[in-house]
Each structure stands twice: as structure tokens, then as C-alpha cells.
Amino acid sequence: MPLNITPVISGSFGELRGGHFHSGVDFTTQGRTGLPMFSIDEGYVSRIGVSPVGFGKAVYVNHPNGFTSVYAHCEWFSETIEKIVTEIQYQKQSFAIDEHFSAGQIPVKRGELVAYSGNSGSSGGPHLHFEIRETATQRPLNVHHFNLPVKDDVPPHIEAICIYPLGEGSTVNGRNEPLLIPVVKSGSSFVLSGNPTINASGVIGVGVETLDYFTGSWRKCGVYSITLKVDGNQWFESRLDGFLFSHTRYLNSHIDFARRHTTKRVVQKSFLDENNQLDIYTTTAERGRVQMLPCQSRRFNYEIRDAAGNLSELTFIINGAERSSGAKMNAAPQVPLLHPQRAWTTTIEGFRVSFPENSFYTSVPADFSVVDNPGVGLGRHFSILKETVPVHNFFEVTLPIPENLRGRKGLTGARVNSNGNGPLIYASSSVRGGQMVIRTREAGVYCLAIDDTPPIVRLKNAPANRNYSGRDAIRLELRDDFSGVASYRASINGEWMLFEHDPKNNELAGFFRNLRIPRGGRHLLEVVAIDMAGNESVFTTEFVY
User: So what's the pLDDT on residue 24?
Assistant: First the structure.
């Protein structure tokens, strides 16, 4: 085990996160940082990453058996590794680094201390994110299959099912729209709440909302496998033994993205979109789709397992029905469809959007429009699809810049909040040839905005007379209220110094153990911070150490 405490899992492998599958397991660390973490086997440190986001401080250890173990969100590294990391940071004059090492440079023994647990990067609380990968492919593997000493005798919990009409003429209970049905526990199995009658016509698909718990824990985790049988025949299965990082965003096709976006409920579909390229499925030629014929009843059975093998089941009947002449069909006007695998570009009144190949998971209505400004941002707005449409690849949105705004300081691109009148959301953008070019993967409404406010830089909890002789670090608040901090440089007495950026806490910290300054005198600290829109702040102060 990488920790010498009783293991408690707060996040399981393959858990459904925002736009990706969880690539490891999260071990809680008793609500605190600084617990020693050990290499699970002999090997050598192959990579060290330090970042203000993502994994934060992370150690990667290659093992002779072809696996790599990963220890992320560290607070500090071991003394040996910390010295190497600090030297590299000073050489590159950068807090963020991503360094690779060869065998023999930093060997480690089985059980050797490699780091201390923390809360660095995008961590939401103190914990260890731990992974095991195939070294050759860097494919993360299901850590639960490596005999973790974690008790789990709790079967998965089934929350609901959803039935989807998948053809233009398909219906579920007379309507051409998905039907969500809650599920309740009944004895040792699960049943549909209220025992409803379900009638469907045409081609349909089903999905399930499910989660898992570990023994003695209230933490919601993900399941390992979902098997769907239709009339006793295995019809569809998803199984999370591992996945490629290049495929992890296909999570947005694996789930009902629109439902998650609008209701936060996460339904895993038991049918495949045309352009879902995940390799976690076993299915028939129908790819999970089921043809419902009149006067035919079909039996659906879900078998859902966690990685420990605990099983939960749900069985329900769907009756085939004639399509009613009074069926309430989608009355939205017909628009052209975008092919999921083909590149596509359009221009409307000088506004342009360009999608590369494989941007969508299924055919998407080409729903674009230029609209008048409703009172937020600058100029007219460009509406790109519906926010409930998932986009797989980055695409470009081009907004024309009116003559009166060209050269304006702080001009940038923005996405309009989904409620239409909330604060704008910064969109990564740059000016190119009199146009604002936005690079994004989010459908929605885009416009121009002004960010001419520089970042805020100021001391936090400064001691009396700014005498830091009794402190472990000098800490500053570093925040930007719109576009975000793009870069910063901290220097003491004119020399670059290592200050660690923690964006989630809007903090910049220089730990004296890593500051290369003489003790017993006055020093001049200068911090220069620049936001994404190019606004600059300069903060200076004298202090004693």
C-alpha cells in the first residue's frame, strides 16, 4: 500500500467525472496533509510533475514488471526528490515543471518514501490520487484489480432507468422523448418505482443511473460493469478494466450529456452513439438498440457489479406498441445535420465557426445564429448549437471586431452564462487580423468582452513589521476576477525565487526552505502578475527574514 493508514476510498477507478473517467483511486488522508507515501514496489522515478492545476505535485515510478505507479496531489516530495525538483525549478525559473528521468537516475526500493500526501493542484481536499498504468502505453488500469486491502461487501445502488426513442418515428408511452423512471429497492433486488406500464414503438435504447459505496463509507463511487440482457440474451456491456487518456472525453458520449447538463443526473447509456470510440464495450450488431414491434413484450435485465464482484439486478418489461396517430412528436423546425466525423465550417454575417473532424458523437442539428446583444458583453452574440450538445474536439469561433473596438485594451472573448444574464465566462482567445478567435470545446453563446482589470496581488496575514523570521513562508493573495492569471514572476533582491501558485485558494507562497536568500536582513520582494487579457500588476514590499 502507498499509505500506512487504514485505506478509505473516496473515489473509485472509472468514476464518471466532468468530461473524463477517473483514472485512479482516491484514498482519503484523514482530512490532513503530510502523511508519508511509499513506492508500492521497486523501480525508478520516471517522471515528476509540478503544476498549479491538475495533479499538482505528482511522482511517477516505473516498475520492472511493466507497470507505472502514480502518486498525485502531493504536498512535498521526499528529501532526495525535493532537492532535484527545486534545482530544476531554479534552472528553468518556473514553479511548473514536467520532467522525465531514465532508469538509474532516481532509483527507489519497495516501500521507500517518495512523497507526502497533500492537496495540491485541482484537488478538492486532502487525499492521495493513486494510479497504476501500463508503462508502454500509459493506459491507466483498474487499481481495484490489484488486491487492494479495502473491504467492500456493498452492492451497487440503482437510482433510475431512462428509455430513449432513437428513431424519428419511435415513441415511449406515446411521446418521442426520453422517459426517466425512478428505481427503488425491494428486498434484495431493485424494481421500477410504482410498477409502471411501459409501451414503446420503433427503435429504442435504455440507460441506467447507478452508483456504488464501499463498506462503512458514505462516499459515492462508480461501478465496474453494466450488463444489459434483452429476452435473456446479453445485449450490451460496459466494463472498466482500463482506458486510454486519448479516449477519456468519450465519457460525454457514454452518458446522457444533455440530462447531466440540465439536471445533474448521470445516466449511463446502454447503446452506442455512431462516433463513440471507447473500447470498454461488448455489444451485438445492434450496438445496444432494440427494435420494438406491436404486440411484442421484451424483457430487459440489468446486472450491475462493482470491482469486488457485488451484484445488483433490475428487471423490467417494455411492451411493443403501434405508433399512435396522436403521438406527440418533436415539433422543432428541421435544420441540416452535422455529420459526427466530418469537418464543418460556416460563416454568418462575418461570424464564423469551424469544427475539425470527429467533433461530435452523433449527428447534430446545425443550429447557429447571430443575435442582438441582450445586455451583456459587447456587440452582437454568436449562438453555437445548444449547450446540451457535447463537442469532443476543440473548435474555433471567430467574432468580427467592430472598428470602434479595435486596439481596445483588454478586449477578449467570452461565453455567455447559460441563464443569459449571469456573469460572462472568459473564453481563451486572441486577436487575429481584426477578428477575435476563440478556441473552445463548449457549445453556447459567445461575444466580445473587456477585461481591463489587472490581477490582485497583496500580502496575506503579514506579521508585525513584516518580520518573517518566525514564519515558514511568505504568503500572498493572487487572484484575477475574470480571465485568470496567465503568468507571474516573483523575485527577491532582483533574483528569481521559487513561489508556489495555488489557484483554487488564490494563493502564492514562497516557502523559506526553498528561497535562496541570506538570513538576518531586509529583503525586497517583487511580484509581477499578468492575466490572460494582458493586464499587469506589480507588487513590491520589503520584509525581514
Answer: 97
**Contacts of residue 308, Cβ cutoff 8 Å, sequence gap at least 6:** 144, 152, 153
- In order of 192, 194, 210, 231, 520, the CA distances from 198 in angstroms are 11, 12, 21, 16, 79
Q: Ramachandran region of residue 32, left (φ > 0), alpha (ψ -120 to 50) or beta?
A: beta
Q: How far apart are CA 268 and CA 41, in angstroms?
A: 36
d(CA 240, CA 15): 9
Distance CA 62, CA 81 (A): 15
Secondary structure string (H, E, C) spanning 357-379: CCCCCCCEECCEEEECCCCCCEE
Pairing status of strand 351-355 against strand 344-348: antiparallel
Burial 335-371, CB ≥16 within 10 A → b, else e: eeebebeeebeeeeeebbbebeeebbbbebeebbeee
Place of cell 476543440: 394
257 phi and psi, to 5 degrees? -60, -45
State pLDDT tens for residues 223-242.
Answer: 999 999 999 999 999 999 99
How far from chain centre, in Å, is Cα 344? 26
Per-residue pLDDT tens over the stretch 470-512 = 999 999 999 999 999 999 999 999 999 999 999 999 999 999 9
Q: Per-residue DSSP letters for 152-204? A: --PPPEEEEEEEEE-STT-EETTBSS-EEEEEEEETTEEEETT----EEEEEE
| Angular region, 388: left φ>0, alpha ψ -120 to 50, beta rest | alpha
pTM for this model (two decimals): 0.94
CB 308 within 8 Å of CB 314: no
Q: Which residues contact 521 (CB under 8 A, 6 or more apart)?
A: 544, 545
| Residues β-bridged to residue 61 | 45, 69
Nearest to residue 151, comparing CAs of 280, 15, 310? 310
Burial class (CB in 10 A: 0-12, 13-18, 19+), 249: middle
Dihedrals phi, psi of 336, to nearest 5 degrees: -60, 155
Beta-carbon count within 10 A of 263 CB? 11
Spatial separation of the C-alpha atoms in residues 245 and 393, rounded to whole Å: 14
Distance CA 13, CA 216 (A): 18
Residue with cell 519497495: 110
CA angle 237–226–275, rounded 5-degree value: 50
Using CA atoms, how far apart are residues 102 and 393, in angstroms rounded to an integer? 33
Residues 6+ apart with CB under 8 A from 218: none
